[in-house]
Amino acid sequence: MTTLDNAERKRIIEELDSTLFVEAGAGTGKTTALVDRVTALLKRGDPVTKMVVITFTRSAAAELRERVRRKVTEAREEAAEGSLEREKLDAAVREIDFAVIQTIDSFALSMLRERPLEAGLPPVIEPVDEVQAELNFDQAWSRWLDDQPDDGEFATAIATAFRLGMVSPLSGLYDTARQLHANYHLVGRHDFKEPGRVTRVTARSIVDAGKWLPAMARFCRLPEGDKLTAALEGFEAIATRLERINPDSEDADWFLANPNIKISQTGGRQADWDEDESGVNACKSIKAHLKDLQDELNNELSDLRRHALGALLEPLKGFVTGYAAERRNAGRAEFHDMLVWAVELLRNDDARLHFQERYEYVLVDEFQDTDPLQVELVRGLTDRAGVGHPTPGALFVVGDPKQSIYRFRHADLPTLNRLRSEPHVGLTRITQNFRSNTSLVGWVNHVFARWMDGAGSRYQADYVALESDDTPPEIVPPFGVHLAGEAFPEPRIETVRRTEMDDLARTAREIGEGAWMVRGGDGLRRSGYGDLCVLIPRRTALPLLERALDEHKVPYTTDGNSLIFVTEDVRDLLSALTAIDDPTDQVAVVSALRSPAYACSDVDLWLWARSGRGFNYLDAAPDALAEPGSVANAFRSLKTLHNERLVTGPGALIERFVRERRLREIALVGGRAEERWSRIQFLAEMARRLTDAGRPSLRDFVLWAHQQAERDVRAPDAGAGEETDAVRVMTVHAAKGLEFPIVMLTGLNSGLNTRTENALFDHSDAATTQIGVRMGSRPAFFETGGFDALREQEKDAGRMEGVRLMYVAATRAKDHLIVSTYRKDNDRSSPAALVAEFSDDARRLWAAVTPAPDPPGARTPAQRRRVATDNQADTQDDPDGWERRQRVLIALMSTPTMISASTLHDSEAVPREQKTGDEQMELDPWRRGRAASSIGRAVHAVLQDVDLGAPTRAEINSLAAKHARAHNVASYEMEIIDLANATLQAPVMRRAAEAHTNGRAWRESYVSARVGVTGVVLEGYIDLLFEDEDGSLVIIDYKTDRSDDAVEAYEMQLGAYIAAVREATGVEVGEAVLVFSRRASEAIAAGADLEAAQHPVSDLGHAAERAIRLAEERSSARLGRTPTPI
């Protein structure tokens, strides 16, 4: 295929003996370039075992391996039979599984495990994941603090810093220690201690001035009420106090460091003062003297604080480097350790020579994301002659400086640019974009050519224009860029943002309903919700966006690992857990009360507070807790959980809270239930991990969770929804490397985050690294020398990275890019304002988006707010009537009882611990049945995880081995394999497999619904639910522990599922089938028909009615009264 940049692309496959830096713009095929280079080397006959290909995520590494395999296989098929090239590619195909295609940390770890002695490591090296690394750091920090003597150097430094104005020095030290720990390889060789001593002169100057300056007040003609005269009296008192405590002592410095001490004065009118003996207005002269003294004091305190900070940082450096040595000695490797140790390993001549001979070619993908350590590792592998640059042909890197957006992970653009600009490195640029159409590419070039102008700064990439030959069709709305919103004369940005999110949600609904066109196959098709991705530059935009999408009934899913800690479900749950842990945290208590778990309205809270009661539930009087009402009910619940937190682990406590407050059922009402359940489950699992790591208290978990939220931590595989026809919502960072038919970019009406850390590291000089540290708070900052300059440099670098972040966002779109330009009319600097400014002179390159109108009869946001206000007014006008109505509703809602479907087939008198494996799993499926059949649990787990659409024997064997070990039944692995395989061969399971392939099957599906005349709630987890060809639903329940001797009892359970599913979904249940695993296994062994292994319910309606009647009887028995219709 001939491309617009064909000459540049040919260099990739022809100049195999040259070091190449391929600058590949967005959508140009960075990974394709890398695969082409590997294939060209293999065609030439270079062994695949001589190459190492490095990328930066495990999923990317797996995809890259598969693409290399496919490309090499295709090249082999194209080569002439019997040719030398065919022979070389035959060998490459045979050896492709031995190719080293890894993430940078995995590759570094493999080097260390191969040569541990040269690396100064024990023979066994174990990687430590991010969560465990954080816990280990906290424990090491606590141990180190405990080991510091009360009269030692560190304690003295802490006391000095405190006296000089550092508030909570230990808290600030913890944050600083974390940042130094992340760069410990640089910290160890840095000297933080300030040379010399600070010359103390200011206190003496003040004492001397105190002997004559206050007397200058005689020149004031109107001393009564004159601010300067009063200031002179205060100054005299300060001078007197200093003279009494010795102006040459440290005590004088500490006294002057008090933030209430102020020397300079701006008050006083010169017109009220006479001239002094020198002929100068006395007011002016006094102010000048006081300002000089204040400047002298500020400079001296700054010097003292810099010396005090240095005295603090030196022992901190000892902790950081000592902890690193401790990990090295134990062979416990964090991500950063693997890189540091691998770089140090290559400084060993024998080890470096070994790996240079082993790997002749180093190829790096996404090179813009590399940090200085990774670059040093690559240089060490490829500089075989020791001349300071790679041997020709040994290094091939591909990346896009315009997409460098990981400074928070130490990605460093100056380091990348230094390598790119070296004379022995060949720079080739590929520019043809295969993702986006010419209209979209034209707008991107027009805007970012100006926006990404860094004026020669080393912290900004040069803008290289993209090219495209994909001419869009002429349709409405047109393919390309759409600007949504304008400048509003609105004083509050919050109002603008609410309008923005409401309008964009309506546009999203319009897209989901098919009003836009996108490319599909060889032509065009109507858009769906799944075609749209909403990108936000920061997580703070999510709550308003979620509410707007929910209000307009737009199905959506959030990218779990980047947004989980700001989702409403997680924030509400953390508020409740914080309230349980600490009843004095009234913000958390009130947040918990207002959350769906307790559903207290603002009126409830107001009435409670009006009665003179507070929000510490431990202080509430017993008679207040005994009252009816939502707040009292909530307080009783919180108090009970608070009392049990010391004897119940946080994981179990979370599960209990979720179960008692019916959060899973609430998720069903709110929509996106599976995604919301997975978030809850994520928190419970993390609580268990903390417990296993030696932090078993609820307080530990709450502190950890809040730290994760504050640090913008990406959670591992949490909360991602599986719904396909839904809008995806994610941060720009999470979207990097992805593409979508339609991208909506919102949340741009505030400045991009340029927050800087307290410890800064400048790598702009290849030979040295500057380190700047700041602690304390205004006005008493403690700073190392040069910190301010580093901070300004860091802020500039952050602003420039923000532009690149917008470039990454804009280039994710294939067909349509919608950019929100909602902003205040006085906004000139936000991304929304700049996009509007840069687009203004190129109106041919974009179209305006007009929000879709609401459906007929729908309430507008203003009407919805007015209804809420009206309801509040009714409540305030008639609070007694409101309370009566509330009591009736509470009584009504309290009548139905929750009945589990699995309890309907046996006696409720059977103790939980005596139930069989199938029964126990249905009661608590997330627990996988404590005291239940371990074999049955393992089989259920295999069936839950296996690929229903195309199960392979190898996959079943692997899952069986995994779950057999997990349930301590490893010796029964073959039996588990046999039962799982037999279950999958049942006829109804084959139909389910086909539905699964089409995305219409669901495993472990929770169902809950009110049924019958009393509104009793039936709930349960269905093993497998799928949609049949006629649109009806089929329920499957596995029975792994028993034969079919309890069919009649189990039909009752299936009847409950039938009733609940019908009521909850409104969809008819066509079949309900029991599949007996052991009976299936026996049938296969005997060569019999597998139909005998499954039992369909013959009369679905009758089974549902029986289940409802029994549930109502059980409900009334629990309540002690006759069922009451609702």
Major β-sheet, in short? 7 strands, parallel
CATH architecture heading of the largest domain: 3-Layer(aba) Sandwich
- Can you give the mean pLDDT? 86
Number of strands: 28
* Model regions low in confidence, pLDDT < 50 over at least 5 residues: 716-723, 864-873, 906-932
Percent of residues in helices: 40-55%
In the CATH hierarchy, the third-tier topology of the largest domain is known as: Rossmann fold
Number of domains: 5
Secondary-structure-based class equals alpha/beta
CATH C-level name of the largest domain: Alpha Beta
**CATH homologous superfamily annotation of the largest domain:** P-loop containing nucleotide triphosphate hydrolases
Strands of the widest sheet, in order across it, are 14-15-13-16-20-9-22
Shape label = globular
- The fraction of residues in strands falls at 5-15%
What is the alpha-carbon Rg in Å?
Answer: 35 Å
DSSP summary: helix tally: 43
State the distance separating the first and last CA atoms.
71 Å
